[in-house]
Amino acid sequence: MGKKMNNTLTLYELNSLVAELIDRAMPQSYWVQAEVSEARESRGHLFLELIEKQERTNTPIARASAKCWRSQWALIGANFERKTGVKVRAGLQLMVQVHAQFHPQYGFSWIVDDINPEFTMGDMARKRQEIINQLKAEGVFDLQKELNIPLFAKRIAVVSSASAAGYGDFCNQLKHNEYGFCFEVELFAATMQGEQVEQSIIEALNLINEREDDFDCVVIIRGGGATADLSGFDTLALAENVANFPLPIITGIGHERDESILDMVANTRVKTPTAAAAFLIEHLANTLYRIEQAQMKIHRAVERKLQEEKLHLQRLSTHIPVLFAMVHNRENARLDDYLHAIIQRIGLHLQRNRMHIATLSEKLQPNVERKITHERHRLQLLSQRIDSVNPERLLRLGYSLTYKNGHIVRNANELSKGDEIVTRMEMGSVKSIVK
C-alpha cells in the first residue's frame, strides 16, 4: 500500500503524460467531415462544437470540441467567407483539418489548421438543389412568375431592415425620380442577416398578407456584397411563403454571387435596392408611354374619322337641295291626303251624330209629355191633401185654436190657474185668464 502511494502522480504530471502520449501517437493533422452544432467567436478565436449524426435516424453518434486560434482564424475565416458567401454557423457541413492537442490545464481539444470551403459549397449546393426540386415537385416554383405587376404599381410594401443603407437608397431613388411619379412606400422591418432572417421575413410577409388590398407589390431588399451571409435566403420555408404569396414580389438582395432560392421563386429579381427602385420607376414609365401612345392613336383615329365625316357631309350637302325639294313635295302631298281624309271622317261622324240625336228626340218627347201629365196630377192630389189640413180652412168651418205663450194647447192639463191664453177664430182672437 505504501509502495503504491510512493508512485502517485500529480494531476499536472498525469495530464502532461497524456499530452506527451498524444503528441507521439498522433503527430499529424487529419481531415474530418462533421456538422457544426455550435459556433462562436471570442477575442478573435473560433470555438466549435462538432457533431456526427446517424444518417437514417438523425441521432448523434459522435461529438467533439474544436478551436481555431486567432492568428489562424483571421486567414481561414476570411477565405471561407469569401468563397462560400456564408459565415461558419450551426447547421453547416464542414471539412476541417485538425490536429490533437491535450493541454495540462485546459484538457483535450482538436485544433483547426484549415477548412475546405469547396466541401461546404458543394454541400450547400446539394441542399439548395434539394429545396429547388421539392418546390418544383410541389408545383409552386413558378407560381410568382404567373402574377403580373399592376400597370400602376405605386403602393409598395418593403421588407428590409429600417437602418439599412439600401432601404434609404431605395426610398431616395423613388422619391426623386425624373418623371415626378409619387410612390407610396411602407416599411415592414425585418432582420436581413443572421439566423433570424427566415422567420423575420416570413412574419413581415404575414403582416403584408393581412393587408393585401393596400399594396400593388412587395419588394424585399438589403445591402451587402459577395461576403454577406445569404444562407437565410436559401431556406425551404421562406421559399414556399414567397412562392405562394398573392402579390408579386421583387427581390433586390444586393449580392454578386449566383442568385439565391428566394431570387429564383420571386416574380422579378434585380441585383440591388437601387435597381429595384429603378425597375419600379421604369415599369411605371412604360405604363405612361403606353398611355401616351394610346392617346396619340386615339387622337389620330378621331382626326381621321372627323375628316371622313367632313367629306361625307360635303358630298351630302350637294344633294340636299334636290333631296329637300323631293321630300318637301312628297310630304305636302301626304299632308293634303291626311287633311282630306280627316275632313271626310269628321263629316261622316257629324252626320251619324245628328241622326242619332234626331232619333233620341223622337223617342224622348212622348215620354216627357207622359211624365209631365203624371206629375201634374200628383201635384193636384197633394194640393187637395194639404188644403184639407190647412188651419185657415178649419177656422172657416167654425173651429178655434188656443195658444199659450205662442204654442198651441192640445191638452187641458197643460193649463194652470192664472194662465193667460189666446183663442183664435176665423174673425179675430180673444184673451182669457184660466180660473
Automatic annotation (TrEMBL):
Keyword set, alphabetical order: Cytoplasm, Exonuclease, Hydrolase, Nuclease
OB-fold nucleic acid binding domain boundaries: 10-115
The keyword Secreted is assigned to this record: no
Domain Exonuclease VII large subunit C-terminal span(s) in chain numbering: 140-432
Subcellular location(s) per record: Cytoplasm
Top-level taxon of origin: Bacteria
EC code(s) of this entry: 3.1.11.6
Entry-linked InterPro entries: Exonuc_VII_L, Exonuc_VII_lsu_C, OB-fold_nuc-bd_dom
Catalyzed reactions: Exonucleolytic cleavage in either 5'- to 3'- or 3'- to 5'-direction to yield nucleoside 5'-phosphates
Main location: cytoplasm
Transmembrane residue ranges: none
Subunit structure: Heterooligomer composed of large and small subunits.
Assigned protein family: Belongs to the XseA family.
Function: Bidirectionally degrades single-stranded DNA into large acid-insoluble oligonucleotides, which are then degraded further into small acid-soluble oligonucleotides.
Name of the molecule in the record: Exodeoxyribonuclease 7 large subunit
Originating species: Prevotella disiens JCM 6334 = ATCC 29426
Originating gene: xseA
